[in-house]
């Protein structure tokens, strides 16, 4: 290990004894306070710049979209809703005609669109509107100018971030094939993070890194039996399965949150590419050292503080790992909407033994536990945050963790800061 | 199917939530998938309420379909009763549960809960938020006040003249546009007139309060979109007359006071003679001359749009060039109002249609909703919000009613501030080439907005692209109709055109080119530009 890295305390910290690999998980069933998968469109439509997301759904779906994010978007969004009405429910064939009409209207208004996603919702699924057939049909009539794909973001099938999974999985069959050894990073990242990662991979010695989703739908990554992929997000189960169906192999790693996670994540690729350790260490050292120094300035604000996670984005376990190991926070309860044991295997190993894990949700019971535990800070959705603040708790909006660049070295301190700020504010207001 | 980017109203069950959340001791059990819980954030984030709305969602999933969604509903309803012990319960379905037809009413009847249960049938594929709120309030009133109804045909007993008149205030809800402040204002006015308030509903009313609605002498319908069906039923059932004038603006507030005074049999002339409001004098003051004839476009819910048009023309001297609403239920009222101002009412839920109209009409001030605020930003037009749907900033910490005399003051300020002030506007005309002091700068008293406008290059190309698209279409028509005389712009003419504020520039360009074509001008010089200006000047 290089001298520079020895100065990075978190990297040398031993793994927690035993970890949470076999820890029992409280599985709950009841009211869930979490967005549906449609919400992924909010970041996906800005990420894939020539794509349009047409939700085939109800007024509720349209209202969700504008309530969850819409009011903040100043440019015209590249998403919309085809609102199903009474007449569409009367006859299925009519609904297909109607959909064709709406798509024609949309594409004439937005001739810049190259990729159209038809996004299924609860109503379109319950009435069994076959969007994959519709996508094929429309794809034929608009090809080659516009590709038409479909996926489901419905609340009966998906929660919040799973919409991204469904969207990316829908892209996989269309990826060009290759036999060349290649690295693919899977999961939507902010452009700034993507650029940092590209530079770091180049410094390590892996030049040709591809990203899924691409910034433009015409820049699809290639895939094949010699493709190795790294998940940048923990909620991509279907996408991973689809990629493996095309022959790709997942590189086992924790997620690139915090210094430790980021290092291990890059290391997984470096190992596969047989990069000499010295070269790897030299490549990451400047950023890792910078990030560790930045974290150590925030640590005193968080160390020893007790944190409680309500389930939201599936980022909870990697976040909890980062906060407990690098910032010395204590985990009261870590809730997640779904727990993918395989993709989170390394993360679970690294969690302190005895961490209370919960999956699914019964919001009232969980609120009772939270009130009883009186944590220092609670991570929860927008519906719960202000009521909990009013009860005297300090909260962090879970959604910010999805909408803010948090991955990688340069963002590690920003991520810590997201948790420190509510505590600092409460202290200031109390003074 | 209807293609939409933004919607003015949510689904009808959100309307029901607004009623449930406004009331005390009521709980709503909503059969719905997990994503529908987003609606909570409207109340806790946008309105910054301190409590979650009193709603339990069943949050069924795909794997429950066809097997035990009905059981899920019953469990949720029973648990909600046990946990929250409400005095009345609402049960219903969101759009998805409506399709699986579980019958929340029947299922909850089977539970035999010891409280009144109101079953809501809100057809999500036909109706919207305000309708849902109105229907919910009406069903609650019928269910809870109904048992006290006198036999049909009973004449209400005349009021004992020794007792002060009492009224109900109907319509204020959670997530309403300034409802909380309006209530305070109107309660104050009624106290001054000498009228007592029997019940305010649904805001802060308990189920017990609802059972007492029949004890009032008359009803005041503050928000017709929400209270009209209930008020109509109360009129038919208890013989309570209703006050229909909505007291937004000076004129309407005075009309309202007269109407209330007549029903209550009191003399309110003292209040009418000395309303103690600044708005009328401010509007008359010489500084306000610049407001004269400003071209205003009004869009919102019917009640606020109608009120805004009246204030704009009669109390501020603006010219209403467009008036519209998304409230189809009150389309007739808006059409009638539009006639007063010589415009055609726009009844639509299509935000893009509204945007096109605003662009076309060359508007100087937009009075609209959060959606119009987006349009205004894009076009660089000053804007004030008059109606829901709204943003978190439309729930200000300060007292800022829309109704009553104080409401008129608030409205004067909020509408006039986005505009340039009197002398400032004239100076801008004079020094519009000054690089720090030009026509695209924001009004000097809006510090924050100045940087917003400076950031406008991001928005401007969009607006220009939009204007261009419109122009191109027009040109095509014109060329086809009149042959290929295509005037070209001289560099000086083009430069002069650039001095015109960009939101009217498209119109100026089109007018000038039309003028050039008509008079056979092939090169548009500065001269030609001003000839065209004179030709089209109003
Ligand atoms: S987060 Fe706040 S500012 Fe942003 S859209 Fe929601 S309410 Fe508006
Ligand atoms: S949960 Fe279903 S019905 Fe509700 S917004 Fe999401 S997709 Fe639409």
Q: What helical percentage do the residues of chain B reach?
A: 40-55%
> Could you tell me the radius of gyration of chain B in angstroms?
27 Å
The share of residues in helices of chain A is 40-55%
How much is the radius of gyration of chain A in Å? 22 Å
Briefly note the structural class of the backbone of chain B: alpha/beta
The parts of chain A where pLDDT drops under 50 for at least 5 residues are 1-14
The two chains with the largest interface, and their residue counts, are: A-B, 63 and 59 residues
Q: Report, as a whole number of angstroms, the end-to-end distance of chain A.
A: 45 Å
Strand arrangement within the widest β-sheet of chain B reads: 12-11-10-13-14
* Number of alpha- plus pi-helical segments of chain B: 23
How do the strands line up in the largest sheet of chain A? 1-12-11-10-13-14
Helical segment count of chain A: 19
Mean pLDDT of chain B: 88
Q: How many strands, what sense, and barrel or not for the largest sheet of chain B?
A: 5 strands, parallel
Low-pLDDT runs of chain B:
448-484
Number of strands of chain A: 14
Query: Main sheet of chain A?
Result: 6 strands, parallel
What is the assembly state of the chains in this entry?
Answer: heterodimer
The amount of beta strand of chain B, in percent, is: 5-15%
Describe this structure in words.
The complex is a heterodimer of chains A (431) and B (538). The termini of chain A are far apart. Chain A is globular. In chain A, 54% of the residues are buried. In chain A, strand 10, helix 14 and strand 11 (330-336) form a beta-alpha-beta unit. By secondary structure, chain A is α/β, with parallel strands linked by helices. Mean pLDDT of chain A is 92; it is low at 1-14. The longest helix of chain A is centred in the last third of the chain and has 26 residues, at 277-302. Chain A has a six-stranded parallel beta sheet, with helices on both faces. Chain A is built from 19 helices and 14 strands. Chain B is α/β, with parallel strands linked by helices. Chain B has 23 helices and 16 strands. Chain B is 48% helix and 12% strand. Chain B has helices at residues 12-22, 40-46, 69-84, 95-100, 104-109, 129-145, 179-193, 207-211, 224-238, 250-264, 269-273, 279-284, 302-315, 331-340, 351-361, 370-379, 404-416, 422-430, 447-454, 460-482, 491-498, 502-518, 526-536; strands at residues 2-4, 26-31, 55-57, 88-93, 117-119, 166-170, 196-201, 218-221, 242-243, 295-300, 319-325, 345-347, 365-368, 383-385, 488-489, 523-524. In chain B, helix 13 (302-315) packs parallel to helix 14. In chain B, strands 12-11-10-13-14 form a five-stranded parallel beta sheet, sandwiched between helices. Chain B has a four-stranded parallel beta sheet with strand order 3-2-4-5, sandwiched between helices. Chain B has a four-stranded parallel beta sheet with strand order 7-6-8-9, with helices on both faces. The chains are: A alpha/beta (431), B alpha/beta (538). The complex binds iron/sulfur cluster (2 copies). One iron/sulfur cluster binds at residues 45-46, 391-392 of chain B.
